[in-house]
Amino acid sequence: MQTIKCPAANVGTTDKAGQGRLRPALMGKEMQGLFFETDNGVRYVLRALVVLLGFWTAWRTGRSVADGWGDYTRVVIYTLALGLVMRFLHHALFNGPFINGFYYVFDVVLLLVFSSIGFRMRRTSQMVNNYYWLYDRTSAFSYKKKD
Question: Where are the membrane-spanning stretches (predicted)?
Answer without folding.
Answer: 71-89, 101-119
